[in-house]
Amino acid sequence: MPAVEEPTIAKPTTRLAAIVYDGMLILALLFLVGTVLTVIGTLLTMQTGTESAQARSLPVWYQNIVMTPSFILTLVGFYGLFWRRGGQTLGMQTWRLKTVNDSGRLLTWGQSFKRIMAASLMPLIFGIIGSLIGGSRAIILTSAFLGLMFNYAFCLFNRRGLAVQDMISNTITLKMPKTENEGLWRVIRNRKN
Fold it and tell me: Is the pTM above the cut of 0.85?
C-alpha cells in the first residue's frame, strides 16, 4: 500500500505560477467591471457630443468614489468566494494549492479580507517608496511589483517557508498531494456495469 502524502507549505515559485493563472482571470474581470462602470459613468456624468474632440474623461470624484472601490470589491469578492468555497482559486486548483486558516479550516470573509490586505501591504509600501524616489508612474509600478515579489521571496528566508501575507493574516497556503483519479474510460466502464 503506497504511503499517503501530507500537504506541505507551498513553494514561492508554485505560488507565483498560480498568481499568473489567476491574474489573467482577474484582469478580464476588472476589464469587464471597468467597462460597465465607464459606460454608466459616461451616461450619468457627461454630456455627449458627436465628435471625438468633444470626448472627456470621467470626473475624478467618480473614479475615486465609484470605480476604485468597485475594483477593490471585485478583488475581495474573487478571492473571498473561492477561498470560502474550497480554499482554492482556479489558478490554485491547477497547481494543487489550498489556502486555509491556522487551524486548517476554510477562510471566513474576515480572514479573506485580512489576507488580501496583508498581501497588498508590501506592494503599497514599496509603491510609496517608489513615489518618494522618482514619482513617475513607471517607478511606482515597478516598486509595487518588487513589493509583490518581496512577499514571495520572503518564503525563501522564513524558517517555515511562510509568505508575508501568511504571517500577518494567520493563514497558510499548502501544496496538496496528488490524488488518484479514476480515469475517463474506467468511469464509463463502471457506469455500464
Answer: no
